[in-house]
Task: inverse folding
């Protein structure tokens, strides 16, 4: 009985502990495309983070064009975060996705409005140009 | 000179002769001593068999036999342990999948990443 438990524990430990480091050059080309924004930092990432990022990269081919653009532009920011920051972001996203759809759309509109460059800044530059001639 | 010659050679008494000498002297022992010696020999042989198993295919079979639960109690314990490991691994896998899906969602959502990330 004891040897059975030891054998099982060893199998479990071996499967969890296995994480081979991967240098940039040995990554499959498809993953290199998705991970291109973090190529320069790739070798500085710990093995575990490399594995997680590679798993994200495997989703990349399934995304549509717009999503691919967003993925590439946000990946470097995402990879720079600490595990705690990433977990907090997931928690926020999870909470946000639980709001009823209408409210969610409303919040999205508000956020997009707030993130736009200040409305006054555009006419301030454009207005003198329009009145000049 | 002869003595030196003898020392250079192998001892003239070999193991068979020693065994014969011992057998002859054993015949002179009384019945009680012989019986207790015989008993001690049997005990020693039994102990040796128990402690030094010869490695063979049957040893592997024996070890494998040890790994398999025998009583209902052992089967129950093994099932509980296995179920716990399977559920633990399934749960770990599920939470990893959930995290990945959330990560992809954050990376591709139409809301900017700054909305979800505290800096």
Result:
């Amino acid at each position: 009985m004891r040897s059975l438990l030891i054998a099982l524990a060893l199998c479990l430990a071996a499967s969890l502990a296995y994480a081979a480091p991967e240098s940039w050059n040995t990554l499959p080309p498809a993953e290199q495309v998705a991970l291109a924004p973090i190529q320069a930092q790739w070798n500085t990432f710990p093995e575990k983070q490399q594995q997680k990022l590679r798993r994200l990269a495997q989703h990349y081919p399934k995304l549509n064009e717009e999503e691919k653009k967003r993925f590439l532009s946000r990946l470097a920011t995402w990879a720079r975060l600490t595990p705690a920051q990433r977990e907090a972001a997931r928690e926020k996203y999870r909470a946000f996705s639980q709001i009823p759809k209408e409210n969610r759309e409303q919040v999205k509109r508000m956020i997009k409005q707030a993130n736009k460059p200040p409305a006054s800044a555009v006419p301030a530059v454009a207005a003198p140009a329009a009145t000049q001639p | 000179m002869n003595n030196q010659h003898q020392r250079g050679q192998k001892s003239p008494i070999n193991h068979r002769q020693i065994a014969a000498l011992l057998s002859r002297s054993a015949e002179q022992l009384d019945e009680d001593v012989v019986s207790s010696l015989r008993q001690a020999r049997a005990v020693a042989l039994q102990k040796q068999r128990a402690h030094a198993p010869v490695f063979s295919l049957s040893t592997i079979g024996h070890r494998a036999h040890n790994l398999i639960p025998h009583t209902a109690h052992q089967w129950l314990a093994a099932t509980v342990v296995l179920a716990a490991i399977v559920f633990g691994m399934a749960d770990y896998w599920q939470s990893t999948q959930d995290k990945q899906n959330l990560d992809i969602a954050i990376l591709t959502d139409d809301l900017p990443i700054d909305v979800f990330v505290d800096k």
